[in-house]
């Protein structure tokens, strides 16, 4: 498997203090003992039902539709200049309205969402509520899926997001699916695996859920099993001539006129082939518009690819006049850590970072299964912060000119943190050097690790200066939420696992300033659908360029960057 596509960032740990841990309670029930009166059984049932109701509709429950009255005292800052709706209660998801208070220093430099984007979001929220799970249109759409028949045109059409790999990949993939849903007027439903969504994030849409109901009620089986060989994929239907494209560029269903299939699977993960990539062609977008259900599987940030689709460009530009702030707005709107995670973020911030005049975040990712400390990686980090004067120059231990800074290090290994602390500890930076966790290795599919990873992404987003590792989706999310252009350290994800010797040299320069806060799309299509040939997609439009850290990838940047 291509390392580029299989790498993602590790779930990391959060501090194990009582203030950052949720008060989890276990409800115990007893069986009816012999001889106990029968009237005891209904009493226990009533008690159990009461406890269940408390759990289901508790403040921390992302499924909670029955909430306290929405607050009336929210400020424009708390609502992120209108990006967020005021329809949620504060305590149901504290991060939603508290996020802004941890980014106050960057308020003057913040980029306000456009009025057009705000209108699109409010209309999309209404669509999610009108057509989402539990509604009559949703039940009719699921029945149509079970019947296996095509459906007539309807104003309730659905996009199921199937994301996978590490948490950074999944967040970028979900944000991409959300933008596509907004651009095409579809209800977004997020497939979750072992509660890897509701254990991390609050509901983003008021009065409904973004989670795809699981189990027997959804008829398409194990969604993660869909892949390149699935006959329902757009690419395979094109290969099998189920879809044909005429000389005029119009696509149609070959065997049955204009009858739509019940669903189309979009295989957009890193290993997709030429026919799958035709998703980015306008003629196929016109055909997909009529499909009542789309399943989108990806591990990537697709937004730069969507921006290259001509029919999306005008709408995208109206939504995001500053095109390179797309994820900044999408991520802040969509992702709100549940209270359990948010408590870990805020308690660690207050204990270690709050008093500093400037917070410097350093995110270190080594793309190897064995996380053996590498001296050249440490040398690269230190060379970067010294060259760019992000941290003070250390001349001698006897002449300390302490800076009003705090340093936050995130890494799977504690070795880099310990070396950086040796260099800048002892009063050299007044706020100290801190590392919330050091897991040792990446552990996918573990909710507790994902919670710790999410807390560290948000801690990094509070920093005033960021140094990130190239190719890292973990770093992409942190920089996007922060709105701060990071210094990116080039990395080499193709390192041999058998190469145990630390023979690498520090690249020159050791880091470069990112042209924008946008994540990199690692696996774009190079095919120009109009010219019918491959082109340099980093030169098609002035605001989509090749990434600083991945030469074959593309990202969004302002023309003046």
UniProtKB/TrEMBL annotation:
Coiled coil residues, start to end: none
Top-level taxon: Eukaryota
Transferase keyword on record: yes
Name the record gives this protein: Fucosyltransferase
Function statement: May be involved in cell wall biosynthesis.
Biased composition (Basic and acidic residues): 1-12, 436-449
Similarity remark: Belongs to the glycosyltransferase 37 family.
Gene3D superfamilies: 3.40.50.11340, 3.40.50.11350
Ranges annotated as spanning the membrane: 40-59
Record's subcellular location: Golgi apparatus, Golgi stack membrane
Principal location listed in the UniProt entry: Golgi
Organism: Triticum aestivum
EC number: 2.4.1.-
GO cellular component, one term: Golgi cisterna membrane
GO molecular function per UniProt: galactoside 2-alpha-L-fucosyltransferase activity
Keyword terms, alphabetized: Cell wall biogenesis/degradation, Glycoprotein, Glycosyltransferase, Golgi apparatus, Membrane, Transferase, Transmembrane, Transmembrane helix
Transcription as UniProt keyword: no
Biased composition (Polar residues): 14-23
Topological type in the membrane: Single-pass type II membrane protein
Disordered as annotated region, ranges: 1-31, 428-449
Biological process (GO), any one: cell wall biogenesis
């Amino acid at each position: 498997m291509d390392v580029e596509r299989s790498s993602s960032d590790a779930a990391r740990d959060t501090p194990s203090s009582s203030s950052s841990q949720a008060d989890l309670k276990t409800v115990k029930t007893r069986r009816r003992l012999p001889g106990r009166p029968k009237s005891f059984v209904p009493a226990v049932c009533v008690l159990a039902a009461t406890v269940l109701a408390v759990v289901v509709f508790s403040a921390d429950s992302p499924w909670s539709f029955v909430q306290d009255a929405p607050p009336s005292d929210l400020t424009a800052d708390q609502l992120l200049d209108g990006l967020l709706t005021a329809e949620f209660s504060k305590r149901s998801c504290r991060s939603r309205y508290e996020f802004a208070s941890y980014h106050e220093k960057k308020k003057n430099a913040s980029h306000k969402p456009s009025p057009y984007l705000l209108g699109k979001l409010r209309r999309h929220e209404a669509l999610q509520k009108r057509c989402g799970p539990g509604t009559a249109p949703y039940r009719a759409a699921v029945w149509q899926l079970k019947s296996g028949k095509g459906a007539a045109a309807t104003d309730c059409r659905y996009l199921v997001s199937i994301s996978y790999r590490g948490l950074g990949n999944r967040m970028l993939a979900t944000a991409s699916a959300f933008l596509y849903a907004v651009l095409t007027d579809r209800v977004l439903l997020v497939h979750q695996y072992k509660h890897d969504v509701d254990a991390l994030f609050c509901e983003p849409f008021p009065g409904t859920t973004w989670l795809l109901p699981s189990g027997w009620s959804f008829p398409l089986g194990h969604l993660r099993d869909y892949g390149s060989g699935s006959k329902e994929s757009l690419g395979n239907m094109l290969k099998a001539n189920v879809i044909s494209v005429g000389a005029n560029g119009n696509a149609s269903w070959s065997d049955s006129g204009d009858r739509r299939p019940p669903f189309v699977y979009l295989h957009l993960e890193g290993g997709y082939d030429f026919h799958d990539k035709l998703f980015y062609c306008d003629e196929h977008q016109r055909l997909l518009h009529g499909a009542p259900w789309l399943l989108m599987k990806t591990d990537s940030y697709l937004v730069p690819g969507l921006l290259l689709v001509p029919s999306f460009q005008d709408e995208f530009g109206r939504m995001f006049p500053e095109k390179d702030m797309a994820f900044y707005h999408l991520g802040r709107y969509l992702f709100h850590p549940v209270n359990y995670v948010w408590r870990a973020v805020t308690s660690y911030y207050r204990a270690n970072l709050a008093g500093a005049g400037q917070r410097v975040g350093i995110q270190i990712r080594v793309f190897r299964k064995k996380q053996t400390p590498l001296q050249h990686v440490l040398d690269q980090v230190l060379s970067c912060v010294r060259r760019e004067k992000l941290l003070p120059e250390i001349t001698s231990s006897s002449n300390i000119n302490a800076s009003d800074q705090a340093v936050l290090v995130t890494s799977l290994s504690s070795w880099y943190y310990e070396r950086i602390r040796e260099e800048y500890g002892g009063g050299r930076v007044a706020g100290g050097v801190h590392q919330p966790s050091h897991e040792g290795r990446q552990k996918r599919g573990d909710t507790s690790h994902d919670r710790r990873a999410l807390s560290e992404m948000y801690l990094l987003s509070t920093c005033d200066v960021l140094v990130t590792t190239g190719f890292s989706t973990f770093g992409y999310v942190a920089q996007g939420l922060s709105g701060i252009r990071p210094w990116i350290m080039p990395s080499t994800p193709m390192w041999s696992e058998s190469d145990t010797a630390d023979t690498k040299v520090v690249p020159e320069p050791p880091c470069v300033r990112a042209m924008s806060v946008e994540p990199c799309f690692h696996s774009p299509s190079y095919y120009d659908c109009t010219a019918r040939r491959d082109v340099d997609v980093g030169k098609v439009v002035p605001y989509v360029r090749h990434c600083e850290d991945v030469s074959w990838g593309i990202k969004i940047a302002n023309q003046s960057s």
